[in-house]
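Posted in: Protein Modeling Q&A

I'm a second-year student putting together a small comparison for a lab meeting, and my supervisor asked me to include a predicted structure for Recombinase domain-containing protein. I've never done this before, so apologies if this is the wrong subforum. The sequence is pasted below exactly as I got it from our records. If anyone can share the structure token output, I'd also love a short note on what stands out.
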Amino acid sequence: MYFENEKLDSLNPVAEAYITLSGAVAQEESRNISENMQWAVTRRFEQGTFTNYKAFMGYQCIEGELVIVPEQAEVVKMIFDFYLTGYTFAQIKAELEKRNIKTATGKSQWDTTTIQKMLKNEKYKGDSLFQKTFTEDYLNGIRKKNEGQRPKYYVKDSHPAIISPEIFDRVQEEMFLRVRLVLDEKGEKSNIGNRYSSKYLFSNLLVCGNCGQVSDVERKEGRLYGDAVQEWRRGRWYVGVLRPCKMRR
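Accepted answer (user: helix_wrangler)
Welcome! Here is the predicted structure, written out as tokens:
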């Protein structure tokens, strides 16, 4: 390969050294640019002036600022109300689809993960948490979830709120109450996630004295069964469907 500007042939040993040196210089320039940009963004985080928002359900981004979309804001309020009424993520999804309510991207089908993230999104109460993710290596540009590797910056009243702080905090408390820790097969604590149901009187209240699992009630052939009531399945005694239980009826 012949480089016209430098008048060098790639077969020439001098050219090889030149290419290596040029690559190193370019990489160093790229690193400096990345560090300078990161420094500028961090200063804006600290000053609470970072406004590089993206549009999401309930808001559109106009000149870097979040502006409420009234029709979508009503959907957001509905989702928060459903959850406080006792709906699960799956039940909220079903209700939204039943009412033919579209997602922010215009899709007819909702995702329970999206609903869960919406209920956790502090932006709905008018606040912003910055640097939830970060780029660890400027060369590949891959973003990673910030789990304490970098500082996070919380800015209150950064934009108009759709949900009141009181309702938002109640939803976070409700989420915490619905998450349960049980013992897995190895006897270690394991998070079983959102298996909550408010349909029956004793949902989430009855606990098995043997395995410590919370009762989830389901209907079978006109009768009620729960995790605290054992049943024989595939040659083993089970408490509901979570893990084997040695206690028999």
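A couple of things worth pointing out for your meeting: The CA atoms of residues 174 and 194 lie 11 Å apart. The chain has three domains: 1-47, 49-178, 200-248.
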